[in-house]
Design goal:
six-stranded antiparallel β-sheet
């Protein structure tokens, strides 16, 4: 054994300071003239030796934690390890720098092209067996970094010992660490272009610490799915031609304190009992501030650790599926927060955010917008959408804040934005990204639906990407779009005193002017019951009885209106207080010992019956997106505060919905009815006494009379209860 060839000063300096692009070319064992040189970097070690079968050779101390020697061997011992002696212990370890790259050429090629649709399998921390040794492969994209090192609880958070190598021109850094397994905490220590260092959580981490801690955690899934039946049949019927009734849930506050697994014991049964077809979960991706409700994401690939592990979240999804309930997840590709341990200037320069500071800064939320024109960033987000659908069996992605992505001038004044190459205000990069995301999800994930929260009149949100519209753009490719106009107009009407409603009648009918321009969801979401907007029942005018009656009548109108339904938790039992993530719904309102409990239980019973009637009535969902499924009976009775319309299924069978938004009973109110139906039966009445109403209605069948009315040859004289919606069907 003799000294190793000395390292030149620049190489030594780069190695010690974490800026060497190829530490594997210096550390580990290598052939040199006359033998094998072995070099190890082990700060704080008293000594280092190479051990193998029949071999133990002490390395010479070169200072600064470097140990090296030239061994008189003809070949590198394939099973050699290093024996590291510290002040009070001795460890025998596999040498990380004897391993070939654990990331394949195809992966690197796809990453370089920005089209790796399973990016989570290539980047991040992946437990694996490599060259016969168990450990974890760490990979990260940091193209501007001078160097990257892994730090964690396995190296006392000292990155000196574990520098990573750069793999070609892709900007990817890699190292395989033998002996590091699931549960290990880690971050990446990145040397920026200016030589400073930053400690970052893994953008691809599949598990994170419970906030406010923010380290990433090596994770491997062991969940065994039991939802094969659900997955096999979820795409059997197009969502547009199927019942679709959504219960929106903020998991952390639905029943505060419950974990994912505890939620799996309660949430599926509750949602199934009420008859909703789906739940929509407010963002579950990891986020540092609970008050953001999950809409400022730092861990796009990690379910929040507040409620458990990724496998625990899979258990919840599995339980919902086995109860026959689909799972939609809010997804937030519009922006990300500026936390200095997350994505912002990740490797020292703008990387995930746009290079132009004006385009990078989100004007409303103090966050950063993604650079949708950069292929690697687009790949990061497209793969993320696929990841949730494939790895967690998510059935739908509701994409948040789409409007803020589509417009260059969104919330910006003149001089704060520059037009696109055609002189327009459209963000062409965002359009291309959304089209790619939707096309990829629909191609890879049968049965999944994407839903846009888009608040403008952008043409073609739910049009196929290959169909060009009048504006020259292909459709964005979403399956559904939130109808924010319907939500705003209808709530504006409902908040008015009945005596004033005749002046706002058009607010309730206008949505039908554009109802078939997109495929719509009718949302009464969390956004409408916070920040001073009041809970749904508290928006209503009048005394407590009238407020509840208005609430019930509105729900009856909503469930009958073309479009899918979404209702935020707490509104199903007429909670009067605004929602707060700190304490969630006021479940005590349903305590039998509370004197007003029947009032709230009655509203919940109505929601249950609405869902049951809705699911059993194809007229309410089978032709949701075509004009043939809807017909006005009377849409202009503003002075009466009355609306009546018919819905039709594919066979032409009708259901008649009649809304009386005045507080007076209307006896013998004549309604024109579709021809050929001699008898009509009341099948739902929001004024039923069991729901807390006055019990006025039509208990007996209504016989069609040959009296022309509303442009029809026959009509029925119906009783319209006060502040109520009734549904009639041929009987």
């Amino acid at each position: 054994m003799r000294p190793a060839p000395p390292l030149d000063d620049p190489t030594r300096d780069r190695l010690l300071h974490g800026t060497h692009h190829d530490p594997h070319g210096v550390l580990g064992a290598h052939h040199v003239p006359g033998g094998i040189v072995v070099r190890a970097l082990r700060p704080w070690a008293k000594g280092v030796a190479v051990v193998a079968k029949g071999l133990r050779a002490e390395l010479l101390d070169e200072g600064d934690g470097l140990f090296a020697a030239t061994l008189p061997l003809h070949r590198i011992p394939p099973d050699h390890r290093i024996l590291v002696t510290y002040e009070d212990t001795e460890l025998t370890l596999d040498d990380p720098y004897r391993f070939l790259p654990a990331l394949g050429e195809l992966d690197l090629h796809l990453i370089g092209e920005g089209r790796h649709e399973e990016l989570w399998r290539a980047l991040g921390a992946r437990p694996m067996t490599h060259q016969g040794v168990a450990g974890t492969r760490f990979t990260v994209w940091a193209p501007n970094a001078q160097g990257v090192r892994v730090v964690g609880d396995f190296n006392v958070w000292d990155g000196t010992v574990h520098p990573m190598r750069s793999l070609g021109g892709t900007g990817v850094w890699e190292v395989f660490l033998p002996g590091v397994g699931e549960g290990a905490l880690y971050k990446f220590e990145i040397t920026r272009p200016d030589g400073s260092r930053t400690l970052r959580a893994d953008p691809m981490a599949r598990r994170a610490e419970v906030p406010p801690a923010n380290a990433s955690i090596v994770d491997g899934s062991h969940h065994v799915w039991r939802d094969a039946d659900w997955m096999a049949r979820r795409g059997a019927r197009p969502v547009h031609e199927a019942p679709f009734s959504v219960y929106e849930v903020h998991l952390a506050s639905w029943r505060p304190g419950l974990s994912y697994r505890q939620l799996a014991e309660q949430l599926p049964a509750y949602v199934k009992d009420l008859g909703f077809t789906h739940v929509e979960l407010m963002p579950v991706a990891e986020h540092p501030f609970g008050g953001s409700w999950g809409y400022q994401v730092t861990g796009f690939y990690a379910p929040t650790a507040r409620l458990g592990t990724p496998d625990d979240f899979k258990h919840l999804v599995d339980a919902l599926h086995r109860a026959g309930i689909g799972v939609i997840m809010d997804w937030v590709p519009a922006h990300f927060p500026r936390d200095d341990w997350a994505l912002a200037e990740f490797d020292g320069r703008p990387l995930y955010e746009h290079q132009d500071p004006l385009r990078a800064a989100h004007p409303d939320w103090g966050t950063l917008e993604f650079d949708y024109g950069r292929k690697e960033v687009r790949n990061f987000l497209v793969a993320n959408a696929v990841y949730w659908c494939e790895e967690f069996h998510i059935d739908g992605l509701r994409v948040d804040a789409v409007a803020s992505m589509l417009y260059l001038d969104y919330s910006r004044e003149a001089g704060q934005w520059a037009p696109n190459e055609h002189g327009g205000r459209e963000n062409l990069d965002a359009v291309a990204f959304l089209q790619e995301m939707n096309a990829t999800v629909y191609r890879r994930c049968p049965g999944v639906v994407t839903i846009a929260e888009e608040s403008t009149a952008w043409d073609g949100v739910t049009r196929a990407t290959h169909h060009t519209g009048p504006g020259g753009f292909g459709g964005l490719g979403f399956g559904l779009k939130w109808n924010m106009g319907w939500m705003h107009d209808s709530l504006e009407y409902m908040t008015k005193e009945p005596v004033h409603r005749k002046y706002h009648h058009g607010d309730m009918t206008f949505a039908m002017v554009y109802a078939y321009s997109e495929n719509y969801v009718l949302p009464i979401s969390h956004d409408e019951v916070v920040h001073g907007k009041r809970a749904l029942v508290s928006k209503m005018p009048g005394d407590w009885w009238q407020q509840r009656a208005n609430h019930r009548a509105f729900l009856g109108f909503m469930w009958a209106h073309p479009g899918k339904q979404l209702l935020f938790m707490g509104q199903e039992f007429a909670q009067g207080a605004e929602w707060s993530e700190a304490h969630g719904p006021d479940w005590w309102l349903l305590d039998p010992s509370y004197s007003a409990e029947p009032d709230h239980r009655g509203v919940r019973d109505l929601v249950r019956d609405l869902n049951a009637r809705y699911r059993a009535t194809p007229a309410l969902w089978q032709r949701d997106i075509v004009p043939e499924g809807f017909e006005w009976i009377v849409g202009d009775a503003a002075d009466d505060n009355v609306l009546a319309f018919a819905r039709y299924d594919a066979q032409g069978r009708p259901l008649l919905a009649v809304c009386n938004f005045s507080p007076v009973v209307r006896h013998g109110y004549r309604l024109g009815v579709p021809a050929g139906e001699p008898v009509w039966q009341e099948v739902l009445n929001t004024d039923a006494s069991g729901y807390g109403g006055s019990g006025v209605g039509n208990p007996d069948p209504l016989k069609a009379e040959p009296t022309p009315w509303h442009g029809r040859r026959s009509s029925v004289p119906a009783v319209l209860p006060p502040l109520a919606t009734v549904w009639l069907r041929p009987g």
